[in-house]
From TrEMBL:
It comes from Paracoccus shanxieyensis. The lineage of its organism: Bacteria, Pseudomonadati, Pseudomonadota, Alphaproteobacteria, Rhodobacterales. One of its GO terms (molecular function) is sequence-specific DNA binding. Gene3D superfamilies: Winged helix-like DNA-binding domain superfamily/Winged helix DNA-binding domain. Coiled coil: none annotated. Signal peptide: none annotated. This is DUF1153 domain-containing protein.
């Protein structure tokens, strides 16, 4: 797949050893599942995508993206599942 030149890194090595590239990001019009949310959060955390670019590209609010980031950092990918929202929500 051809990727146009972008500022910043083009790949990132995640803690589990997998390589994340811009081509791995979900399409802008996507059905959100925990795996896709985790990919976007990891891309921002590892510098592949700027937070503001992710918010604009996916039509998210800053608050929504920050909630994904907090949930992923505290509890991992399972916390991003809609069915697990009540279990991992902070009181």
């Amino acid at each position: 797949m051809f990727l146009k030149k972008t500022p910043g890194p083009r790949t990132a090595v995640l803690p589990d050893g997998t390589i994340l590239t811009l081509a791995d990001l979900p399409p802008a019009e996507t059905r959100w599942v925990a795996r896709r949310k985790a990919i976007v959060v990891a891309a921002v955390q590892h510098g592949l995508l700027m937070r503001e670019d992710a918010i604009e590209r996916y039509g998210l609010t800053g608050e929504e993206f920050d909630a994904w980031t907090r949930a992923f950092a505290r509890h991992g990918r399972n916390a991003l599942k809609i069915t697990q929202l009540q279990k991992f929500r902070q009181l």
